Amino acid sequence: MENKPVILFDGICNFCNATVNRIIRFDKKAAFLFAPLQSEAGLKMIHQYQLPQTPNSFVLIEKNKVYLRSTAALKVFGYLPWYLRWIKVFLFVPLFIRDGIYNAVANNRHRLSGKKEHCMIPSADQKKRFL
Asked: How far apart are CA 83 and CA 106, in angstroms?
């Protein structure tokens, strides 16, 4: 796993796939590895880290520590270019507020942006970034 942070995401969710594509676009240093939750690698990590079988969450695994929902999403900004890092200040907002907003979006993401029949297939350039 190259000791890089891993992002687990819902591979059939259009919103989640668009988010991963944005992270890849801004992550010029290729700091992250990615795995759809439904993939073999994703399922293995769900088991390894004892996550719910169908986590309704964006998951960040960094140095063997698991971050979920809004905390995971905000921690990602620490790896992106300087002009996006300021967004991490929202980590100071109480968790119940952050996760309340996160859950409202997560619970409606398929209705808002749709979903696919199958997980996304990374492009040739992206393939080396996926587990």
From this structure: 26
Residue 1 lies in a domain: no
- Domain boundaries, position 73: 6-127
**Residue type present at position 87:** I
**What tens-digit pLDDT sequence spans the chain (131 residues)?**
468 999 999 887 888 888 899 999 999 999 999 999 888 999 999 999 998 766 677 899 999 999 999 999 999 999 999 999 999 999 999 999 999 998 888 888 767 666 665 556 666 677 777 77
pTM comes to 0.84
Q: Number of structural domains, the chain? A: 1
Write the DSSP assignment of the chain as a string of letters: -TT--EEEE-TTBHHHHHHHHHHHHH-TT---EEEETTSHHHHHHHHHTT--SS--S-EEEETTEEEEHHHHHHHHGGGS-HHHHGGGGGGGS-HHHHHHHHHHHHHHHHHHH-B-SS-----HHHHTTB-
**What length is written for the chain?**
131
